[in-house]
Amino acid sequence: PTCTEDGSYDEVSYCAECGEEVARKTVTVPALGHDWQADGSCSRCDEKQDVPVVNPFVDVNEGDFFYAPVLWAVEKGITAGVTETHFGPVDACTRGQVVTFLWRAMGKPAPETTSNPFVDVAEGDYYYDAVLWAYENGITAGTSADHFEPNSACSRAQVVTFLWRTMGKPTSTAEVTFTDVDANQYYFGAVAWAVENGITVGTADGL
Asked: Which of 94, 64, 100 shows the shortest CA–CA distance to 80?
């Protein structure tokens, strides 16, 4: 038998005196069923199942608009929260954190360059590889030629622009109606793309 299919064997009777076969019948052995492990894999075969992610955060509740995205990000290894039990959903994200989230979401690609232009990004920082990867791929150029400001808060404009550049700067024909988004701003194309793809609807009062 396997996990999903029945097995069988022949049960044979022999004459005790001459040893000749006198009877034979096929016996069915029921399928074993999967032996699921904690990681969702079966110990007997190659099958895998989705393992529900347990919400570890006391400040993330079902019904919050960010509930499913947070659990998805935890499952994908994009974030582990600010502590084991807190996600900090209303905290501002730093530039170092946002670039690291993107880098992890893209599979943690190793940067090809070892040239670091930023004096405030040091080897050993958790965001070091993420920043170098983002820099060499044109996702960020820093806040100046030699500063990245990893601990500064990342604005909504910066976040949406990082996302847009990560996706290859796709063009968009979506109408941007936000009164605080000017066509001459660096983030205009990114905002249009984000609106078209349902990534943002802006904040209150058309901003």
From this structure: 100
